[in-house]
Amino acid sequence: MGTIFGRQEPNQVSLSEHLGNDGGPPRFSSPYVPTRNKMTNPEDLPIMLYIPGIDGTGLAAFRQFPLLVEAFELHSLSVPTADRTDFVGIVEIIEDYLKIEINERANGRPVYLLGESFGGVLALVVAERCRELVDRVVLVNPATSYRQSYWPILGPIMPQIPEELYGAVPFVLAPVFGNPLALLAHNIDSTVPPERQLTSLAKGIADLFGTLNFLVDVLPPPVVAWKLELLKQGMDEVDKVLSKVQQRVLLVAGEGDWLLPSRSEAQRLQRLLPRCYTRVLPGRSHAVLQEAGVDLVEIMK
């Protein structure tokens, strides 16, 4: 389910529908957030296109969606697990969406691209190709540092792991993706009685294990191999455009990102991008948008 070009309103889908998208080509939809302030008309807000990381679902940012929909008319890209569109093909899908759907809707409103991890690579290439349509770019732990990480060596090994062991990989790597305590603390309110905090902690543990199980489902070994190929294609494309991106860029990096060298990459991109401002968040991991106490809208302000 995705937005159809030419429709008057973006197609709103629930989070489960958005994450469960497993058919057809990559497409955009507007996440339905029940808590959104109904007094705010999305058509009065700036427009944001969220481009997810390597899983292609938007799972890593869904805890930010309730905050983002109060500040933006939010459109989120979903790339189904079975899809095999190459890097340039995904760039062209985003570019066409900007030209056909967003350009018609914008009516003078600023347009933001929010790219997380692999989505940051896509966002930079799209921004350079769509200078007249994109006003701002926000990057969160962009995977532009892929070649400087250990993933070119470790990544190709993962699809070769026996299937009976592969299911345990996300659990072993959980501390690499994110700070487990910060992930678990997201739903805990320190002002409520201890027994309610314990209930929230139990829910947080269940949510975290559910997330890790979900990663096993959407990133089976053949998909991991394809995603790594996409990353390699993306590196070739993004290196050509870094010095040409003219939009203002806000780069948010987790100081404790063990998946990618995001802190040093923030310094490198600040030198290469003409108009780049960086925010390094102490103690934050690769899954920074999932961690408790992180409000991307406030960081952007």
Automatic annotation (TrEMBL):
<dbReference type="GO" id="GO:0016020">
    <property type="term" value="C:membrane"/>
</dbReference>
<dbReference type="InterPro" id="IPR029058">
    <property type="entry name" value="AB_hydrolase_fold"/>
</dbReference>
<feature type="region of interest" description="Disordered">
    <location>
        <begin position="1"/>
        <end position="36"/>
    </location>
</feature>
<dbReference type="Pfam" id="PF00561">
    <property type="entry name" value="Abhydrolase_1"/>
</dbReference>
<dbReference type="InterPro" id="IPR000073">
    <property type="entry name" value="AB_hydrolase_1"/>
</dbReference>
<feature type="domain" description="AB hydrolase-1">
    <location>
        <begin position="94"/>
        <end position="288"/>
    </location>
</feature>
<protein>
    <recommendedName>
        <fullName>AB hydrolase-1 domain-containing protein</fullName>
    </recommendedName>
</protein>
